[in-house]
Fold:
Amino acid sequence: MDFDIDRLMREEIKDLPMYNPGKSPEDVAREYGIADCVKMASNENPLGPSPLAVEAAKKAMSMAHLYPDGNSTRLREALSRRLGVGVECILAGHGADEIFDLLAYAFLRRDDEMVVGDPSFSSYELAAMTMGARVRKVPLREYRQHIPAMLDAAGARTKMVVLCSPLNPTGTTVSREELEEMLESLPRDVLLLLDEAYVEYVTDPEYPDVMVYFTIHPRLVITRTFSKIYGLAGLRVGYAVCHPTVREALEKVKLPFNVNRIAQEAALAALEDEEHVRRSREANRRGKERLYLLLEELGMEYVPTQANFILVKNGPYADLFDRLLRHGVIVRAGEAMGLPGHVRITIGDDAQNDVLERALRAIVGGG
Ligand SMILES: Cc1ncc(COP(=O)(O)O)c(C=O)c1O
Structure:
C-alpha cells in the first residue's frame, strides 16, 4: 500500500519541535547509573500538594464513573471570589498549557505572527507554530523582556504578544509601567497574553495587580496555574482570566470535559488551603535566601528571582549541568532553554537544598 505520511501531514507540523521536559530521575538512573537523584528542574512545589487537595482527590475518585462538569463551575466560582472578577471572565484549562493551545486555535491563522521574548517558556511558540503562525522572538535585555523592542516587533500581521511574568527561565518580572505601555501602545486587534504561572511566589511589593487591567483592556488574557505553588502539576489544572468575549471564543475550541473531576475537586481544595500556600511561599523565600548566600560565597553569579527557580551562570564550570548530574542533582540546562552558559535550578525543600549545596561546594572545590 502506498501510504505516505509526508503527503498526509500538514506542512507546519513536519518541522515542529517537540516540547523537551528535561531529564527525569529514571533517565539519570538509566544513563548515568546514579540512583537517588534530586530533581530540581521542573519548578514543582517541593512540599507536594495540600493534604486537603489529596483528600478531595481521593473522595472524587468514587465518582470517577461520571463525566465531570465541563464548565468547571465551582472552581470558576471559587476563583471568581478569590480574584474579585466575574465568573464569566474565567476559563479553566487542562493546565495553563491548554489555554495557550486554545488561544492559538481560536485566534492564529497561517502566517499570522506572535511576538515573544527570547528566551521564554516554549509552549507559546509551539502552540503558534502548530497553527502555521510565525513567531518573532525578541531578545531579552539584561534577562528581562525588552518591552520597547517587543512593541517595535509588533507589525501588521501580529495577532498576539506574549509576556511571561515572572519570566521562565530568568525569574524577572514586568513592571506596572511596562505592562501599561504594552496595553496602551499595541496596535488594535492584538491580544496580549500575560502568563503568571509563578505569580504567587512574587515578593516584590511593586509587582502590579494585573486583575485591574483586563476590564479596561479587553485584549489582555491572564493565565495562571495550579501546577506551581498549589503543587498539582500532575493533575493538570490552569485557568485564564479574560474578557467574556475572549472566553466565549476559547470555549468553542476546548474539549467538552477538559478538566477532569479529580483535578477540579483537588484544585478547589488547594485554593481553600491558604495555610499550605503560605507555607510553600515561606519555604521558597527561605530557600531562595539560602541559595543566594551560598552562590555569593562560592563566587557564582545568578539572576535575582521572583519565582521558585534561580538562573545561575556557569562561570568557569562550563559543564555545570553535567557535574551537578554526577553529584545527583538534576537541573535544567541553559542550552535547552536558549540560554547557553547557564543552568536553571528549582528552589528545593531543606533536604534537596542540602544535596545541592554539597554538590556545588564539591564542584567549586574541584570535584
Ligand atoms: C511560565 C510557565 N507557564 C506555564 C507553565 C505550564 O503550566 P501548566 O502546568 O499549568 O500547563 C509552565 C510550566 O513550567 C511555565 O513555566
Remarks:
- The domain at 5-48+275-364 is CATH 3.90.1150.10 (Aspartate Aminotransferase, domain 1).
